[in-house]
Amino acid sequence: MVSPAVALVAQAVRTPAGVAIATGALATLGVKAYLDRPSRTYGNGTVAKEYDEWTNDGILEYYWGEHIHLGYYSKEEMERGYTKKDFKEAKYDFVDEMMKFGGIDPVVDSNAKVLDVGCGFGGTSRYLAKKLGANADVTGITLSPMQVKRGTELAKEQGVPNAKFMVKDALEMDFPDNSFDIVWACESGEHMPDKKKYIDEMMRVLKPGGKFVMATWCQRDDSKIPFTKKDKKDLQFLYEEWTHPYFISIEAYKNLIDATKMMNVVTTSDWVDETIASWRHSVLVGIFDPRGWIFKPTKYVKCVRDGYCLERMHRAFKRGLMQYGMFAATKKSG
Hints:
Blueprint: H1 4-12, H2 16-35, H3 46-57, H4 59-64, H5 75-80, H6 87-101, E1 113-117, H7 123-132, E2 137-142, H8 145-158, E3 163-167, E4 180-186, H9 195-205, E5 206-219, H10 229-241, H11 250-259, E6 267-270, H12 272-275, H13 277-288, H14 300-318, E7 322-330
Parallel strand pairs: 1-2, 1-4, 2-3, 4-5
Antiparallel strand pairs: 5-7, 6-7
Helix pairs in contact: 3-8, 10-14, 13-14
């Protein structure tokens, strides 16, 4: 016996208009099925490879500017409408707010030796070097040789000699213990395959009395309310589309920091409200100003995939599956 739905479809496709509608529907479903299959699963060397490509094609820099991280939008700016804010300015505001959160002061920390863990092509490293002044020394590390190259070029162009960049694995840093006054990590934990080692290494190289501040995407704590089948499926997509091994919760990160027994009280916060506008704002700037990608036809598919993932990220943060973790602490003196 034929189901009513099948009979309805059969009836519809007997007309040219029906055929067109059915074809369009099937095409839409096909595109969605394609986009829902992650294309950049985490593996050996994948993080460096992807960031090398993003740096070389210039699209990310064109739209996001020097900072490859989310922006900060105040409550008042959200009420006025986030699209009224300059997308790149939001990223500078984020750095300023993260400095405040971490207790980093241009006067107090004017002679600081700073480590930027996962520095991208160095926007934040250069900004910190300028804000803290000529006596400060900022080192940015990344897995991407192309990011180091671009970061170094921009530092030279901007006259920022106190910011330098190097290729280095954050899980295998060869800096001596107690090397830095400030350890800064903005949206690098997402790519770390060993979160414990990531935290341990940063705590190790921080000087006693030094300041640690970190921002990272987190999944919600599932210890009380387990993830549903849909939650797990959505997280798996977010892991695998942008070469992330996995995420952990704000609570889990705090536990890892506490477990080092090196740090004083850890302050945490969820900045989802302050950052969530970034996802859709990123898509909109690409739509309203297509010059960054329109002349690069070989990148069309990648741009569509990135836009789709940005929307999936927005929805995951909006419904509470993801959280924007902020962490600040000082290292014990004894």
